[in-house]
Design goal:
The complex is a heterodimer of chains A (about 450) and B (about 625).
Chain A (H helix, E strand, L loop, with lengths): L3 H7 L4 E3 L26 E7 L5 H4 E2 L4 H6 L16 E2 L5 E2 L4 H8 L3 E8 L7 H9 L12 H8 L12 H10 L14 E4 L13 E4 L13 H14 L2 H19 L16 H14 L6 E6 L14 H20 L6 E7 L19 E7 L6 E3 L20 E2 H12 L5 H4 L17
Parallel strand pairs in A: 1-8, 2-9, 2-10, 6-12, 6-13, 7-8, 7-9
Antiparallel strand pairs in A: 3-5, 4-5, 6-11, 10-11
Helix pairs in contact in A: 1-7, 8-9, 10-11
Chain B lengths: L5 H14 L1 H4 L18 H12 L5 H10 L1 H8 L8 H6 L10 H7 L23 H9 L2 H18 L3 H13 L9 H13 L7 H10 L1 H6 L11 H18 L3 H9 L5 H13 L13 H10 L9 H10 L3 E3 L8 E2 L5 E2 L11 E3 L9 E3 L2 E3 L5 H12 L2 H15 L6 H13 L4 H10 L16 H11 L3 E2 L3 H9 L17 H4 L2 H15 L6 E2 L11 H8 L15 H12 L6 H16 L5 H13 L2 H4 L2
Antiparallel strand pairs in B: 1-4, 2-3, 5-6, 7-8
Classes of the chains: A alpha/beta (about 450), B mainly alpha (about 625).
Chain lengths: ~450, ~625
């Protein structure tokens, strides 16, 4: 048949979203098995999106600010020291919410950096819009249909200079011509994965990306019905067009995952993920990484952050969410062990929350927020960014933490320095990331 | 947009032609003068092609009718939907009560639960923790999300069951063209009415009338922010802003008990308090730019609704169109917020009372200065006429005819519209002054529509797929979380596209590797009977049910088959099922591909006859052929 490489590069269609409906499989193997990039120990980025606008001021607490305590009579996290429930001191001014205790060690080991007062310059306080803007990394523009992580995949996909990426035909020809230097025999379909039933906006786009709900039960009819799956495969093989090649890629990914069987990897000694969807997602990401199927970007989200009422301070609603977040990340970190050398984990949220608590013991939609950056490559043990202060005149619109770092600068640094992306102006449309603006969250 | 290489195009073309033997022979041939429509291929292929594009799913009965009456006659009937009885739909909308509600009723009945503790004398709104499962369920029933469940369900019902298929298809097209999103704030209450009053009635009327209707509708005014657009330094601007801040700051300073006290003293109603608290929660409404004008709608009006991005307008035009549309706003759907008087007592503005959710032109916000839009001078000192004139200018602009024609052809004919076809259709548009009935007729009658390279060349969007599967299986549709999840997972949950560009129309956008598996799974899942809220009856697949049969099925009485499945051979059953799901299409490839599987299942005694049929249909719904249109 034709050159499998040019065919694969050709039909680099978009997202894989597998709805699991059933049971485990057996399958007729295809000749195309993945040769992964395991040997090259490629880098991985894990993005965790806290949906609903987490209260960054209670997550990483500016206990050194008097205004913090003046604005939050009932929900402020107490100062470190004295009480059991106090913030965990990080640098004499900022502290971690006590529920984030499981992550404190990484800060001490200098493997966790925090960026504060970071976010999107766009004024919207709509969850939908702000999440879209962050996931497409194009605040204010609804014209960008694909996600930034998909564009990162596209621009870190192969060893060419990316000149011809915009034209699939020319790109394939480019590679067909200079095949020898090509490392891209690994499957494209498993480089980007998201945990869940459908692909998040961040990973949508031209490059294949996979949404997995349950690793042990996926494929046609949940992989439960081999003959059904074969029957479909036969149908699609004969179809011979756009529809068929897309299905081809999908069966290919299913096959690879089955062969690699990530579900065989149990958590390393003693590691326990928190119960619930988030813990399960992180557990599966770990299995995928251990299975060496070539995952370079993994995505999970966690909700429940929209604390308009009864948020609580050191304890309560927010504290419980932070506890789940921290225990999940901790478990993943411990489970991956020394593989964390090659992994960067990044948290994000669409915007922050108001400085002043509202009349219902909660906070409302705000502006700037904080991000955690963790991993072996991280230059940790610091709070990065410029702290604008919480005096009323220092606030955004007189109510919110002001922005001093554009989230794209954090994204760009990680894309460029950890994942090796070039062409940053294409990954961040309408924005020119500049290394001079990076917050230096990664070690040089 | 990716292009298929020459090498591949040849192979694809060969494959398509292999599957459609009749197509291979086709050239564009003019039909007999005065006879049925011209078509380049034989009658069945043309009829199937027409039905695939002009309906939400081809049914054997309908195909037979088209072959009998001729395509022109069928099309003509469809172009006059009011002449077609739609009892099947009306019967089935009962599952989705909120779609018949007015905007005001929706706001009243489906408001989100209020935050914070409630005093004893409030209307029953217990705290989440203290609710019984029944109360929780009832609260979910009354949440705004329920409106979306109903909107989507009703749309699926119409798409699957309506006799007015072309009307529904075109309502879908034009809604998408004039997209608004349920997900944006107040639009949740406005979207249903928008589709019902600003889109559907106009799909075979004049384009300019539809354009005006959408421009006036609160859903669009809110979605694209025109409702706060006001002339620079207009008195209303500053006043509203300061009133808002005053209210919000005042309320913020009060404890919940004090707020309750205000209600008890009659200084504010609970609803007004709720509104202000929501304002506090969502932040101040969009801060007007220094000049008070919001350009968002003006830009999209030209870029997306009429001229197209290359239609020849400038930034100055955007500004002037925005100026022309200042004052085009609407009365909030709920009771209007009270502005405090000198003593701090809330005063209800009488102007908006009784007109909640309706368009209002506020002349005090209008920029009445002279403007030039696309070379037309709009005199100073006028009011709503400025906006009406702009709408007329845009609707009749030559670029609009071309832009709309391109979109229609892209959706209904080919991912790569033929420029000559665009010219042809645009000429009809211009000649008929934007008569959409004429344009639609021309679209589906043109020999270019029937050119062989267009046949079976597009892929169903996720909604097309789900609707057609429901339609060909004669499924009964109730509120279904799984159907919504399927649509959401495939990226096309109706009414929720947040971008004003609407859902994409090209196959490439939908056909990607992952969605293929999801489509196969959907086909299998639907027929398995395990999808909540949906009932597909294996034995009667594809057969239309009348009232009596439907009721019998619902009460679970034994269905009587008026027609026994002749022969129990797998091949026979298979061919019959495929013929029901894919009428008029050569199903031999499909049959061949899945026959082995089914025979194996039967031989091992794993399937009953009924299960065999279900499986066959599931495989057919997930087949490549069923993905095409």
């Amino acid at each position: 048949m034709e050159n499998p490489i040019s065919r694969r590069l050709f039909f680099r269609h978009g997202s894989l979203a597998l709805l699991a409906l059933g049971l485990p499989p057996e399958f007729v193997t295809r000749s195309l098995l993945a040769r992964t990039r395991a040997a090259a120990r490629k880098k991985t980025l894990i993005c965790i999106f806290q949906r609903g606008a987490v209260d960054g001021l209670n997550m990483v607490v500016p206990f050194g600010e008097k205004a913090y305590y003046q604005s939050r009579r009932s929900i402020a996290v107490p100062q470190p020291g004295g009480e059991r429930n106090g913030a965990i001191d990080l640098d004499g001014f900022f502290g971690l919410h006590p529920s984030l205790a499981p992550l404190h060690e990484f800060y001490r080991r200098k493997e966790m950096a925090i960026v504060h007062a970071v976010g999107s310059p766009h004024p919207t306080r709509s969850h939908f819009d702000a999440q879209d803007y962050m996931e497409t990394a194009s605040p204010g523009s609804k014209a960008t249909r694909d996600g930034w992580l998909n564009r990162v995949l596209e621009h870190t996909g192969c060893d060419c200079d990316g000149r011809t990426l915009a034209d699939a035909h020319a790109h394939a020809a480019d590679h067909a011509a200079g095949q020898s230097g090509l490392g891209a025999t690994a499957s494209e379909t498993l480089r980007g994965v998201a945990m869940g039933a459908s692909l998040p906006v961040s990973l949508r786009g031209r490059h294949p990306a996979l949404a997995i709900e349950d690793l042990s039960r996926f494929g046609v009819a949940g992989g439960r019905d081999a003959t059904l799956e074969s029957a479909f495969q036969r149908q699609y093989r004969e179809a011979g067009d756009l529809v068929a090649s897309a299905a081809d890629e999908a069966f290919d990914a299913i096959q690879q995952l089955r062969a690699a069987n990530p579900a065989q990897y149990r958590p390393s000694g003693g590691v326990q993920y928190p119960a619930g969807e988030f813990g399960r997602s992180l557990g599966q990401i770990t299995q995928l990484i251990k299975a060496d199927v070539g995952v370079e970007i993994a995505f999970a989200d966690i909700g429940g952050w929209d604390t308009h009422q009864a948020q609580g301070g050191a304890q309560g609603q927010l504290a419980r969410r932070l506890d789940e977040l921290a225990r999940g990340i901790r478990a993943l970190y411990d489970d991956l062990g020394d593989r964390m050398e090659d992994v960067v984990l990044l948290t994000m949220s669409e915007f922050g929350r108001t400085v002043t608590e509202n009349g219902s013991g909660g906070t409302d939609h705000g502006h700037a927020n904080c991000m955690l950056v963790m991993g072996g490559a991280v230059d940790g043990g610091h709070i990065r960014g410029e702290w604008p202060g919480l005096q009323r005149e220092q606030l955004y619109e007189g109510r919110d933490l002001a922005l001093t770092t554009d989230f794209r600068d954090v994204f760009a640094e990680i894309a460029a320095d950890h994942l090796g992306a070039s062409a940053l102006d294409q990954i961040f449309p309408g924005y020119s990331p500049d290394p001079a603006r990076y917050r230096k969250v990664l070690r040089a | 947009m990716r292009r298929v290489s020459g090498e591949w195009a040849g192979w694809i073309m060969a494959a398509v032609m292999a599957l459609m033997p009749a197509a291979a022979a086709g050239q564009r041939v003019a039909g007999p003068p005065g006879g049925d429509m011209p078509g380049g291929v034989n009658d069945t292929v043309s009829a199937v092609h027409l039905l695939r594009r002009a309906t939400f799913g081809v049914r054997p009965e309908e195909l037979a009718m088209v072959l009998r009456e001729g395509r022109a006659a069928w099309l003509e009937e469809q172009l006059h939907p009011e002449s077609l009885d739609d009892g099947e739909v009306e019967d089935r909308l009962g599952w989705f009560p909120s779609v018949l509600s007015s905007i005001r009723d929706l706001v009243r009945d489906y408001s989100p639960p209020r935050p914070g503790p409630q005093p004893a004398d409030s209307v029953v709104r217990p705290d989440a923790q203290s609710m019984t499962p029944e109360e929780r369920r009832m609260r979910a029933e009354r949440s705004p999300q329920r409106i979306l469940v109903d909107l989507v369900g009703a749309k699926l019902v119409r798409s699957a069951w309506s006799e007015r298929q072309l009307g529904e298809v075109m309502t879908d097209f034009w809604f998408n063209h004039f997209n608004v999103s349920f997900t944006k704030g107040q639009d949740r209450y406005l979207v249903g009415d928008y589709e019902r009053t600003a889109i559907r009635p106009y799909v075979f009327g004049r384009f300019e009338d539809m354009l005006r209707a959408t421009a006036r509708h609160p859903a669009m005014l809110f979605y694209l922010d025109n409702w706060t657009s006001s002339a620079p330094d207009s008195a209303g601007d500053a006043l509203r802003e300061s009133q808002r801040r005053l209210m919000v700051d005042r309320i913020r300073e009060l404890t919940p008990r004090q707020r309750e006290q205000m209600i008890r003293n009659g200084r504010i109603t609970r609803e007004q308090l709720g509104q202000i608290e929501r304002m506090a929660e969502n932040g101040p409404p969009p801060r007007p730019r220094s000049r008070g004008i919001n350009e968002n709608y003006a830009r999209e009006l030209m870029e997306l609704h009429t001229l197209g991005v290359d239609g020849g307008y400038t930034q100055a035009d955007v500004v002037n169109v925005a100026r022309a549309l200042t004052g085009w706003t609407f009365a909030p759907p709920g009771p209007p917020p009270a502005a405090p008087d000198a003593n701090g007592r809330p005063v209800r503005r009488p102007l908006a009372a009784g007109r909640e959710g309706e368009f209002i032109f506020r002349s005090q916000l209008h920029d009445a200065g002279e403007k030039v839009v696309l070379g037309h001078r709009l005199a100073a000192g006028r009011g709503i006429e400025d906006g009406l004139d702009v709408i007329h200018i845009l609707a009749t602009h030559p670029s609009t005819a071309r832009y709309l024609s391109t979109k229609l052809i892209e959706r209904f004919v080919s991912d790569r519209p033929d420029p000559e076809f665009v010219d042809e259709l645009a000429a009809v548009f211009t000649r008929t002054d934007g008569d959409l009935r004429e344009v639609t007729r021309a679209l589906f009658s043109s020999p270019r529509f029937y050119e062989s390279q267009n046949i079976g060349a597009k892929v169903k969007s996720p909604f097309d797929l789900v609707a057609s599967a429901l339609r060909v299986t004669g499924a009964e549709i109730g509120p279904s979380r799984q159907l919504m999840e399927t649509l959401r997972g495939l990226g096309q949950l109706p009414y929720t596209e947040t971008a004003p560009t609407g859902f994409p129309a090209t196959s490439e956008e939908w056909v990607n590797s992952g969605s293929m598996i999801a489509r196969m799974n959907f086909g299998v899942g639907l027929t398995s009977g395990r999808m909540d809220g949906v009932r597909v009856n294996g034995g009667r697949l594809g057969r239309r049910r009348g009232g009596a049969e439907t009721r019998a099925a619902e009460t679970g009485t034994r269905e009587t088959r008026t027609e026994e499945t002749t022969g129990t051979g797998v091949g026979t059953v298979l061919e019959e099922m495929v013929a029901r799901v894919l009428p008029g299409v050569d199903g031999s490839t499909l049959v061949r591909a899945i026959r082995a599987d089914l025979e194996e299942q039967m031989a091992k005694g794993r399937l009953t006859q009924r299960e065999l049929e279900v499986r066959a249909v599931g495989l057919a719904l997930g087949s490549p052929e069923f993905q095409r249109r």
